[in-house]
């Protein structure tokens, strides 16, 4: 409570001080009353969706109306020109809103108008239509059946019910789920819902019903029958003389003349009866075709439905209107029909809301001229009363109102409401009377000697007052209400707002100035002071000077100024016109104690430029500039061009920009091709040339040229150039436009050459296909040549046109097993053959045999080391060894060594993938690779591998087979082994430590010593306890008892005898 009390006290004191200051300035605070002004008009129309409201539990509708005024505003409403009866409970007014409880159709529909009023006047809103969304029931009179001949056009009438707003139409056949979808042959009119068929088909027969929904998409309850028409039965008679004869179109649905409202959607429809189906085309004509109309441009927003059956213009404007022609044509002829769109425009006042002063005894004429479609009806209101001509006070002439013999009772709001059949609008003119009042007084102002100054304030008065500016009791400038100005010197001027402008200030202009306004309702004045300061300047020799510095260095630019003692200043620094933010750029700039600029960590790209020091005061600004040049990395070359393009050569032309104090030592050219795209990353740049400037040629105009070689043929390139000097590599230039080199021979041969395994005697040659960047043309193929090594036979030659081919197999006639072949491959395209590569491939040894002598040479708790003999007489590649193993207790199906039959089709030409290792119950599979980890050293005629991730203390069965892509060999015989049990990891870590046994025996000895010490302590405690008798003082007990007790405290006979002797001595 204490805090609240203090805050209230401070608020009261602050308000008191404010009032005193205002009084001292000649300002009197008067709460200005004003008559109401409606700023939130009722929506026209206001549509109430009753079904939606009831579904949300809302049982009322409301119309908007809000106004401002002083004192507070009250509200009243009228319906169709009559005041509402507020006593029935039907209506409630809350803050201007009119609430209609339990609205009913059509009783509550009508034109509503809001009236806002207080003791000073009133204002009326524009009239607003209140509409209730509804859809009446269909007329349930049975519909006549429709019979049509196959191939003839027909229509089904919907006969929709009364509804607001307009309806959406649909049709279904037999059941609601079987909706009729409009297409080229069928069309549902948006205007009345009729269903049109261009020509009948046999399957069109059936029962049809039209259903509707209003454009608010109001949810409806109950069965869809509530919104569906009676059934229309359609019968289609087959044409007895098929096929159906073609006929020219006949328009069934003509484009109608329509009068849409501006900013709404205009729609023309056109549908014809034709066979075969016709094409529909729309034109816009400047006048009817019979009068020689020619085609003109369509409205920009015009569009068509999917089959041009409807022309739709959303948000139509008056300029979109005109004659529109629909033409339907097929192979038998064409027919046209015209429709007219005449856009109706709601009222648009040309005069904005305005305010005029009231001149007592005078005459005032108001105008509310408006645009819009005729007829326009004008109504004038003063407050809540409608004005009619009486030839004494008021004269109403359509859009003009004349008010005679003005007096103070005529002040207030005059509202003009304009209506036509398509909308309503309003404008307002206010006659005002304001007692002179200073809203914002003259403030203390500072001016600079030799400059101009404008002394400003804010005031209000109506009618316009006489204005006077006074200095030292002398009126130096004045202005009458008619705008006639009088001054004592040509250095003074008064603006229409009442501001005083003083030109070419001198020290004598300083002093106190007063401003007075006066009209027939009173006068008021205010005063303020003007100070004239000497002009600021930057001290000669202490301003910014040009600076040359090296990259990474620090420099200081001075800026010391002289200012008048009345003023405060701050040094603002700019670089190339940009204001430096010392907080955000503290790493690069710092302000010195005298306003100087300190540049740190100089960088060419950031700091090089023109620096301007601005000495800012409240009345002037003095500036001085200096150039800072930083020696650093070069700027990017400019004007880079890519020209004279060949298949693997091109010329680069560029001009070197500023090198920032150090010449280029090297140029670097980087390239980017169409093949450098990597998803989600920027394209890569690759260096293609690097050299000294002496390697370049001079071009006309001072540029440089460079001839690039070793480019890839038929590749789209873009280049950029960089200059490197003593300070490092400069920024890259802008990339050149992309350009493609000419086609040429593939620049290289396929790589990763090798051979594979297959049927015995096959020669399986493999390679890695060329990337598209190495094709040199739109496509590429491979020329393969081979012969048996050392025979001197002619090379067999094969051409493969597939750019993705990766292998070729020689199968006929079969070759001897494991014989070397000399192979050559080159890529070729439409241009030429590329370089050739050579390698040795061995003929296949066939399927690998099963491994022999499989044994487990070492077993740990989770690994075993396996060893078997190398497969004899097999020279094919073995990428990996496959292992099949299982636990003994799992007992899977009997593992057999079965021979796989190989057919003549198992060749590389018909690629067969490796056998999948099926996850059969009980079996586990692993692959052993020669990766330096799985394979371990062993005898040269053996294969030795480690199999990991086994379970401890488990009996396993193992089998091994070889893989020679693309085949697996047979499994070996079964070998068994048991893994070791799990070892405590702590003990595993201690194995082999020499100090562990010593530590063990030390701990045992220490434990025994502790036990003996505890035993002795217990014996001593027993001895002292037995030498006391309960209830008496200290005395000795019989020796025999002590001896027996102490002797029982030890199991050592020698110690027991010694203790008995000791006791007997003290007996």
Summarize the structure in words:
The chain has 1067 residues and is mainly beta. The chain has 10 domains: 34-133, Sandwich (Immunoglobulin-like), CATH 2.60.40.10; 136-245, Sandwich (Immunoglobulin-like); 252-264 and 272-342, Immunoglobulins (Immunoglobulin-like), CATH 2.60.40; 348-432, Immunoglobulins (Immunoglobulin-like), CATH 2.60.40.10; 434-533, Sandwich (Immunoglobulin-like), CATH 2.60.40.10; 537-606, Immunoglobulin-like (Sandwich); 638-740, Immunoglobulin-like; 751-842, Immunoglobulin-like (Sandwich); and more. Helix content is 9%, strand content 41%. Strands 2, 5, 6, 9, 10, 11 and 14 form a 7-stranded mixed beta sheet that branches. A 6-stranded mixed beta sheet has the order 40-49-48-43-44-45, with no helix packed on it. A 5-stranded mixed beta sheet has the order 30-38-37-33-34, with no helix packed on it. A hairpin with a 5-residue loop joins strand 64 (697-698) and strand 65 (704-708). Helix 6 (1039-1047) packs antiparallel against helix 7 (1053-1065).
